[in-house]
Amino acid sequence: MNAMLFRESLREFDALRAAVLAAYRMDEDACVEACLTQARLPADATDRVEVMARRLVMAVRESDAGAGGLDAFLHQYELSSEEGVVLMCLAEALLRIPDADTRDDLIKDKIGGAQWERHLGASPSLFVNASTWALMLTGRLMAVDTGFDWRNPGDLLGRVVARGGEPVIRQALTQGMRILGRQFVMGRTIDEALARAQEAEMRGYRYSYDMLGEAARTMADAERYFEAYAAAIDKIGAAAEGGDPFDRPGISVKLSALHPRYEFAQQDRVMAELVPRLRSLAVMAKDHGIGFTVDAEEADRLDISLDAIEAVLRDPAFAGWEGFGLAVQAYQKRALPLIDWLANLARGSGRRLFVRLVKGAYWDTEIKTAQERGLDGYPVFTRKTSTDVSYLACVQRLLDAPDAFYPAFATHNAHTVASVLTRAGNRRDYEFQRLHGMGEPLFEQIVGDTGQPCRVYAPVGSHEDLLPYLVRRLLENGANSSFVNRIVDKRQPISAIIADPVKATERLDAKPHPRIPLPSALYGARRNSDGADLTDFNVLGSLAAAMDASLIDGAKAAPLIGGKAQSGDAVSVTDPADRRRIVGTVVNATPDHVDRALARAVRAQLEWGRVPAADRAACLERAAALYETHSAALMALAVREAGKTVDDAVAEIREAVDFLRYYALRAGADFMRPQTLPGPTGERNEIALFGRGVFA
User: Which CATH architecture has domain 3-32+199-460?
Assistant: First the structure.
């Protein structure tokens, strides 16, 4: 490539990356319309998809296998049931409880009161019934201390076991988790997983192994995860037979496991410390000729992930190797422009990328994070059908670039499978993917009837590492609206569960979900405070410029009485991060200043008392607006004077704004009626200030 063409390529590359950034939290209507344009099929192709999807679902329901595995478990303990909620609460909470005594209390509270017996025998699945027995046993053990009816014959066992103490209870729950773990996890070790995979590999399945475990919290954690990945790559490579990386087993890695500070604010450290680790593992995978896929994580880590991936892909050591891959999440609004950026990256490096297309496993987290941070929108779609449309649009975009991608379509949805098969036609240079323990009866038809390859995403680890993974799978598939749940429920009409998401989305009056307000409208009548996304390059650039422009040398602060600054001895204020830097000067208040201020306030009290509550509320609202208008200057002062991080400075201003708006809202209803009410962050607050002028 000559110099001019190289410059043009970089210019295009920069424009494509800018498009990814611009779509971060773009208007949902506009984003969905763009996806619809790409996802639509001609009428005859749409009809073929429906016929094929119906046939796939009917075959699953007629198959005995359709009643087993995790599909049946998620249906039996769907999140709309009391026991499903108990499982979610328990699994999620146990992740955060470090001591045995507190875990005992939680188990006693959650499991003991649930009606596990009503699920026993309700499913034809041996696995579901075995899991129910384990949960029921644990529940009865919990009930020993809570006034359980001893006339129940099952309590004889509970009374006997109770004498063994609380460790027996934990052991019972551990056994239950092991039963679950056998279904969710491919093996406790990579050797066990490889051995277990052999029978399915003979039937045409491929495997991608994922070493269970959440983000590294320390460098020691990161080193342990690195060694586990390295050992797994050696063993997978030794067990793999001939063929290209697409035919052979592979491994999935999480960047959050390779560095404890894998976050946007630590870009320099990530590039200097994480990228070499990622490169080392990729070299090992290349030498063994196996696939190497970087998993997707939370939306606020996408940009830093792309930087790390780009750094590795542009390394000459990987020239010609097509085993490197990454996951793309269709529920993110950036999915389509991200695929365009990746296509340009693949073509620039002279090889195809392995792209695993998934719908996404962190939806709840993304929604709540945007709301809590007061952002201007969501990085993900708020409707399930919109995510499905985005997925189909991404399918088409990937298939349209065979020179850039070897796509892997991860789904358990029969309509999605049928749509992929229809769009691909006679092509075979792609694969499907499913989770271990899920979707077997659906993909047995694909692998057996069409010969189209399917790769199983296979977690490896002990039951102790299962809980975070279990929570994500339950959140993804445990809702009663999920395809995995509905496909085994014969009460659900087939026409409903194979409905075309494109048509369903086209019929909507509004693409955003009406019951999921934007973060600014989270509190209804009270507007949420504006946040700042410090993982968005565009936001960071403008915020940094505004903060720099607001820094004034020689800033002065002094007591105010009647709006006038008071004189006195000025003291220099230095930056706690650099004591050589003088931020400004401050005149400290004296007892005389305090006496004069109180005297003035008392004289003004009668006048203030005649101000209507609405006007007082408007005053607080104006103060909140001024805080937000001058937020960059206030943040700069918080950082320079108090030594706060930028993130802390954002939170400081937002808290002040939230309080002002909270009390402004209460002013009219509570004028002259002092009372104690919960504040915006849960504490109890006296709101008598609306009826009095001076308070302490």
Answer: Alpha-Beta Barrel (3.20)
Mean pLDDT of all residues in the chain? 82
- Gyration radius from the chain CA atoms: 30
Quickly count helices (H) and strands (E) in the chain.
28, 15
CB atoms within 10 A of CB 127: 20
Q: Label residue 437 by pLDDT band (50, 70, 90).
A: confident
Joined together, the tokens standing for residue 305 give: 């992930």
Domain with CATH 3.40.605.10 in the chain: 537-690
Question: Chain-centre distance of CA 9, in angstroms?
Answer: 33
Would you state the structure tokens that stand for residue 356, as one six-digit string? 């695993």
Buried b (16+ CB within 10 A) or exposed e, 143-168: bbeeebeeeeeebeebeebbeeebee
Chain-centre distance for alpha carbon 586: 45
Confidence of residue 485 (pLDDT cuts 50, 70, 90): low
Tokens of 639: 């950082």
What whole-number distance in Å separates Cα of residue 566 and Cα of residue 638? 23
DSSP assignment of 330-357, as one string?
Answer: TTBTTHHHHHHHHHHHHHHHTS-EEEEE
Residue where the block lists tokens 């046993």: 137
Where in the chain is CATH 3.20.20.220? 3-32+199-460
Other CB atoms closer than 10 Å to residue 57's CB: what's the count?
24
CA distances from 352 to 9, 355, 493, 496 (A): 17, 9, 41, 37
Give the residue-averaged pLDDT of 311-315. 93
For residue 95, the number of C-alpha atoms closer than 13 Å in the C-beta half-sphere is 16
- Determine contact, residues 91/471, Cβ cutoff 8 Å: yes
- How many Å apart are CA 252 and CA 425, to the nearest integer? 29
Element (H, E) at 684: strand 684-686
- Could you tell me the pLDDT band of residue 688, with boundaries at 50, 70 and 90? very low
Q: Which span out of 132-136, 239-243, 383-387 was modeled with the highest average pLDDT?
A: 383-387
537-690: CATH homologous superfamily? Aldehyde Dehydrogenase; Chain A, domain 1 (3.40.605.10)
Token pair belonging to 181? 């773990």
CA–CA separation, 168 vs 186, rounded Å?
27
Which two three-digit tokens encode residue 206?
A: 């491929």
In angstroms, how far is CA 114 from the centroid of its own chain? Answer: 29
Sign for the CA dihedral angle at 464, 469, 473, 479 comes to positive
Number of other CB atoms surrounding residue 407 within 10 Å: 29
DSSP 204: T
SS3 264: helix
DSSP output for 580-613: EEEEEEEE---HHHHHHHHHHHHHHHHHHHTS-H
Q: What angle do CA 577, 583, 589 make, to 5 degrees?
A: 115
Quote the CA–CA distance of 405 and 399 in Å, as a whole number: 8
DSSP letters spanning 225-247: HHHHHHHHHHHHHHH--SS-TTT
Q: Which run of H or E residues covers position 258?
A: none
User: Could you tell me the two tokens for 195?
Assistant: 């051995």
The predicted-structure confidence for 198-220, as pLDDT tens digits, reads as follows 999 998 899 999 998 778 999 99
Note the pTM of the prediction, 2 decimals: 0.82
pLDDT of residue 236: 97
pLDDT at 120: 52
- Give the pLDDT of residue 316: 92
Could you count the other beta carbons within 10 Å of the beta carbon of residue 350? 8
The answer to whether residues 140 and 157 touch, using CB atoms and an 8 Å cutoff, is: yes
More confident site: 399 or 177: 399
As beta bridge partners, residue 584 has: 555, 573
